């Protein structure tokens, strides 16, 4: 097994890693995590666990509440941290194996991360989210650029990017409710136009 893939797994983002430098990735990750932290700030455990959060209404969403979203974010963060840690030591992380880089495996890993998070209290998830945010910021800013331009950068980006989102954006993508039809009503002189 080599750190640089000879047969890259299919990904629409594979070639973007070289264009997003690690410093920009770190800034995006921190901003994305901070957006989630601002969203959950001041909410009670009951509010965080409410299963009716608008963003969870997306088709095929793996999460039903903000508590679940915290767990989902942490699961991806910890995989990305593992990749960066192993690369720094000259080893290949298991997530870089071609067998692991399938949509099915990623979905199962995300589902298991959400399931594990459901048994943890919200305060612990928040503590972990801040810890992994800070660790990712440090690791991304210190990664070897030669490793980043190879499979590592693409794999870390994939772990830290929601499907359909711009690179290194997850929370913001998940927090936005799905687009719905909006009807504007304009009233002028007693007449209503829609």
How is the topology of this model organized?
Elements: H1 22-40, H2 45-49, H3 66-88, H4 103-117, H5 122-142, H6 145-159, H7 171-175, E1 186-188, E2 191-193
Antiparallel strand pairs: 1-2
Helix pairs in contact: 1-5, 3-4, 3-5, 3-6
Can you characterise this structure?
With 194 residues, the protein is mainly alpha-helical. The chain has helices at residues 22-40, 45-49, 66-88, 103-117, 122-142, 145-159, 171-175; strands spanning 186-188, 191-193. It has a two-stranded antiparallel ribbon with strand order 1-2. Strand 1 and strand 2 (191-193) form a beta hairpin. The model is unreliable at 1-17 and 178-187 (pLDDT under 50).
Got a strand count?
2
Radius of gyration: 19 Å
Approximate helicity band: 40-55%
Structural class comes to mainly alpha
Q: Unreliable runs, pLDDT <50, ≥5 residues?
A: 1-17, 178-187
Mean of all residue-level pLDDT scores = 79
First and last CA, distance: 61 Å
Largest sheet: 2 strands, antiparallel
Would you list the SSEs in sequence order as H and E? HHHHHHHEE
How many helical elements?
A: 7
Envelope shape? globular
What fraction of residues sit in β-strands?
under 5%
Strand order of the largest sheet: 1-2
Can you tag this structure with a few keywords?
globular, disordered N terminus, 194 residues, 2 strands, two-stranded antiparallel sheet, single chain, 53% helix, mainly alpha
Question: In a nutshell, what does this entry contain?
Answer:
Helix content is 53%, strand content 3%. By secondary structure, the protein is mainly α.
């Amino acid at each position: 097994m080599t750190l640089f893939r000879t047969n890259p797994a299919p990904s629409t983002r594979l070639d973007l890693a070289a264009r997003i430098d690690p410093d920009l990735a770190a800034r995006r990750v921190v901003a994305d995590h901070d957006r989630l932290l601002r969203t959950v700030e001041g909410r009670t455990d009951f509010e965080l666990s409410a299963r009716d959060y608008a963003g969870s209404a997306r088709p095929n969403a793996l999460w039903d509440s903000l508590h679940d979203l915290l767990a989902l974010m942490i699961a991806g963060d910890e995989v990305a941290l593992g990749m960066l840690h192993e690369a720094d030591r000259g080893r290949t992380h298991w997530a870089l194996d071609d067998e692991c880089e399938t949509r099915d495996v990623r979905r199962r890993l995300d589902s298991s991360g959400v399931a594990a998070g459901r048994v943890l209290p919200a305060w612990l998830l928040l503590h972990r989210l801040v810890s992994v945010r800070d660790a990712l910021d440090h690791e991304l800013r210190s990664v070897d650029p030669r490793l980043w331009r190879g499979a590592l950068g693409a794999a870390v980006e994939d772990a830290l990017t929601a499907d359909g989102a711009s690179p290194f954006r997850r929370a913001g993508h998940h927090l936005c409710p799905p687009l719905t039809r909006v009807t504007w009503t304009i009233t002028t002189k007693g007449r209503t136009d829609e």
